[in-house]
Amino acid sequence: MSKVKIKLQEERDELDFVIAQKLRRIQELGEKIKDLEGKLEKLLQAEASKTCPEQPTMAQLLQYCSRLKDATQGNLTPNPK
Prior knowledge:
Elements: H1 3-49, H2 58-72
């Protein structure tokens, strides 16, 4: 074989090796993407199934504010007189 044919064959072999490595890496990344998509789907389903706690009514909020005001002014404890 001539030197040119040998060099071309070596370059082709090197390129085949590089391409094979790239394909392997692409497959690995594809598997990781599938895993992450699965985890994301589970998280989205878990988030969608959560419900907000029951919200207090206006009367309950006003009562809470009134008790808080009384507590800060010291009106919840009996007068020691």
